[in-house]
C-alpha cells in the first residue's frame, strides 16, 4: 500500500468514515479528485468489504463536454466492475426560481440527487472528492463573506452519511498519485472561469498567499479543524441554552423567552439565533447583520415590532418572547350563524364554537367571558357574523364602562400582533357582541329582564 493511500486511510480512520461492509456511493465527475477517490476506495474495497457505486450528475451547463465525461466515467466503472448511474438536473431553472447563483443551485440539486439515489440503492455512505485545497478555498471564501466560526470551520470531513476521504490531501498530491499510476482524468472548463468567486480565489488569491506562506493550504486547513472542534464545543453550550430558552416549537415557528436572551453571552446568543432560524428554514442567505438585527429587536424592540429576513423568515417581538417563523400570516375567514343550537368550526383558529339557547333559570354561572360566555338572547339578532378584526372596530368591554377601540384593547390585553387577525369577533347587526377568548360586550350582558340566554362555548380542536 502506497504512502498516499496510507495517508488517506489514516484520515478515514481518524474520522471513522468507513465501516466493514459499507455500500459507498461516489460522486464521479471525471475530474482528478473524484477519479482519484474512485481508485483509492476501490483499493480499499477488499479490506473493508465495500460495495461501491458511482454517479455522474449532468448539470446541463456544458452540453458540449457532458457526453464525453459520461462516456469516460462509464468506461472507468466498467473497467473496475462498479455500478454506474447518471442523472440530469436543471440548474438554470432552479437558480432562477430560487434567485441564487448557478454554483449554489448546482450544489443544492447535486446533493439532493446523491441523497435520493443513495436511498434507492441502499448506499449508507456518500463519498465526495473534496480535498485540502478545496478546504482552504472555502475558508477564504467564507471569510471574505463575513462568516463566523461555524462558517470558517470549512467543509466537514463527515456530515451524516457524507464522507470526504481526500479532505487532508493537497491537490498536488492527488495529481502526483494519478500521474504515477498512469490514471487518466478530465478537466472541467468551468473551473477556469473567473466569474465565479471560488475560481478567483483559486487562481488569483491563493497563488499570492502561497508566495507569502508556501504551506498556506495546510495551515488554513488546520485552522479550519481547530475552529470546527471549538464550534462543536460551542454548539453543546448552545443546545443547553436553547433547552431553557425555548417556549414553543413547530416545524415553521420557534418561540424563545426574551429575558434570558437579553443577558445571554453574545457568542452563545448569536449561535442560538442561528440554530433557531435553521430549525424553521435553512441558513442560506442569513448573514451576520441579520443576526445583529434580531438582537437589536430583542433588546430594543416594542411588542409587535418585526423584521423581515431572506426566504420568508420573520422575527417578531412579543410581550415576553421573540418568535422566528416562516408561517404565512393567517386571517380568519368570515362565517355566518343563522340560528342557535349549532356548532361551527373555525379552521384558521383551530376552534369550535358551540352555540345554545337556554332559559335563564338553567344558568348556574355566567362563564369566564373567555372560553364560555352568556348573553341576553333577545338582545342578539341573527344572523351572527364571525370575522376577524377590521379597521375602526370598537366595542364596550364588559365592566369597563365606556367605548374602547379594539386595537387598544388588543394592546392592553397583550395579544401578539401576529395573532390578532385570528381572534374571532362575533357581531350582531354591525355591533360587536363578543371578542372570543377575551371579553363580552356590555350591551349584550344578562340583566334582571333577561328571560333566555345565548350560551357560546369555545371547544379547542385537538
Structural write-up:
Strands 3-2-1-4-6-5 form a 6-stranded mixed sheet, sandwiched between helices. The protein has helices at residues 3-14, 32-43, 45-48, 66-80, 91-98, 102-121, 132-144, 149-152, 171-180, 197-212, 216-245, 258-262, 266-280, 288-300, 406-412, and strands at residues 23-27, 51-58, 83-88, 125-127, 158-159, 162-163, 246-249, 253-257, 306-309, 313-317, 321-325, 335-337, 342-346, 351-359, 372-376, 384-387, 394-395, 404-405, 425-428, 431-435, 439-440, 452-460. The protein has 3 domains: 3-225, Rossmann fold (3-Layer(aba) Sandwich), CATH 3.40.50; 250-325, Uridine Diphospho-n-acetylenolpyruvylglucosamine Reductase, domain 3 (2-Layer Sandwich); 335-460, 3-Layer(bba) Sandwich (Phenylalanyl-tRNA Synthetase, Chain B, domain 3), CATH 3.50.40.10. The mean pLDDT is 91. It is an alpha+beta fold and 462 residues long. Helix 13 crosses helix 14 (288-300).
Topology:
Blueprint: H1 3-14, E1 23-27, H2 32-43, H3 45-48, E2 51-58, H4 66-80, E3 83-88, H5 91-98, H6 102-121, E4 125-127, H7 132-144, H8 149-152, E5 158-159, E6 162-163, H9 171-180, H10 197-212, H11 216-245, E7 246-249, E8 253-257, H12 258-262, H13 266-280, H14 288-300, E9 306-309, E10 313-317, E11 321-325, E12 335-337, E13 342-346, E14 351-359, E15 372-376, E16 384-387, E17 394-395, E18 404-405, H15 406-412, E19 425-428, E20 431-435, E21 439-440, E22 452-460
Parallel strand pairs: 1-2, 1-4, 2-3, 4-6
Antiparallel strand pairs: 5-6, 7-8, 8-11, 9-10, 10-11, 12-16, 13-14, 14-22, 15-22, 16-19, 17-18, 19-20, 20-21
Helix pairs in contact: 5-6, 7-10, 7-11, 11-13, 13-14
Amino acid at each position: 500500500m502506497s504512502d498516499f493511500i496510507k495517508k488517506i486511510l489514516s484520515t478515514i480512520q481518524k474520522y471513522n468514515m468507513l465501516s466493514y461492509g459499507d455500500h459507498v456511493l461516489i460522486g464521479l465527475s471525471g475530474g482528478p479528485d473524484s477519479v482519484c477517490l474512485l481508485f483509492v476506495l476501490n483499493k480499499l474495497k477488499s479490506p473493508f468489504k465495500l460495495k461501491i457505486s458511482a454517479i455522474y450528475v449532468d448539470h446541463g451547463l456544458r452540453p458540449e463536454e457532458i457526453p464525453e465525461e459520461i462516456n469516460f466515467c462509464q468506461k472507468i466503472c466498467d473497467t473496475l466492475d462498479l455500478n454506474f448511474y447518471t442523472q440530469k438536473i436543471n440548474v438554470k431553472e432552479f437558480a432562477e426560481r430560487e434567485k441564487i447563483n448557478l454554483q449554489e443551485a448546482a450544489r443544492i440539486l447535486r446533493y439532493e440527487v446523491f441523497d435520493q439515489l443513495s436511498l434507492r440503492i441502499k448506499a449508507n455512505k456518500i463519498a465526495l472528492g473534496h480535498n485540502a485545497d478545496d478546504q482552504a478555498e472555502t475558508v477564504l471564501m467564507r471569510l471574505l463573506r463575513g462568516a463566523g466560526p461555524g462558517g470558517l470551520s470549512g467543509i466537514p470531513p463527515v456530515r451524516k452519511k457524507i464522507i470526504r476521504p481526500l479532505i487532508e490531501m493537497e491537490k498536488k498530491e492527488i495529481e502526483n498519485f494519478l500521474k504515477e499510476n498512469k490514471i487518466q482524468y478530465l478537466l472541467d472548463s468551468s473551473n477556469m472561469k473567473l466569474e465565479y468567486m471560488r475560481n478567483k480565489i483559486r487562481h488569483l488569491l491563493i497563488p499570492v498567499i502561497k508566495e507569502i506562506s508556501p504551506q498556506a493550504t495546510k495551515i488554513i486547513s488546520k485552522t479550519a479543524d481547530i475552529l470546527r472542534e471549538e464550534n462543536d464545543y460551542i454548539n453543546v453550550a448552545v443546545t443547553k441554552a436553547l433547552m431553557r430558552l425555548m417556549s414553543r416549537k413547530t416545524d415553521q415557528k420557534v418561540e424563545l423567552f426574551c429575558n434570558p436572551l437579553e443577558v445571554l453571552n453574545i457568542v452563545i446568543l448569536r449561535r442560538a439565533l442561528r440554530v433557531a432560524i435553521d430549525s424553521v428554514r435553512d441558513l442560506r442567505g442569513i448573514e451576520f447583520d441579520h443576526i445583529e438585527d434580531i438582537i437589536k429587536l430583542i433588546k430594543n424592540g416594542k411588542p409587535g415590532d418585526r423584521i423581515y429576513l431572506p426566504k420568508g423568515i420573520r422575527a417578531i417581538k412579543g410581550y415576553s418572547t421573540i418568535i422566528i417563523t416562516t408561517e404565512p400570516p393567517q386571517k380568519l375567514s368570515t362565517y355566518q350563524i343563522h340560528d342557535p343550537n349549532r356548532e361551527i368550526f373555525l379552521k384558521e383558529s383551530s376552534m369550535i364554537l358551540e352555540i345554545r339557547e337556554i332559559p335563564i333559570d338553567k344558568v348556574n354561572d355566567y362563564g369566564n367571558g373567555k372560553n364560555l360566555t352568556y348573553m341576553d338572547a333577545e338582545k342578539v339578532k341573527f344572523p351572527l357574523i364571525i370575522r376577524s378584526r377590521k379597521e375602526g372596530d370598537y366595542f364596550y368591554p364588559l365592566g369597563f364602562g365606556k367605548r374602547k377601540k379594539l386595537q387598544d384593547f388588543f394592546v392592553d390585553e397583550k395579544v401578539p400582533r401576529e395573532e390578532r387577525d385570528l381572534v374571532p369577533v362575533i357581531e350582531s347587526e354591525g355591533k360587536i357582541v363578543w371578542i372570543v377568548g377575551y371579553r363580552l360586550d356590555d350591551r349584550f350582558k344578562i340583566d334582571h329582564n333577561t328571560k333566555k340566554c345565548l350560551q357560546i362555548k369555545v371547544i379547542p380542536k385537538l
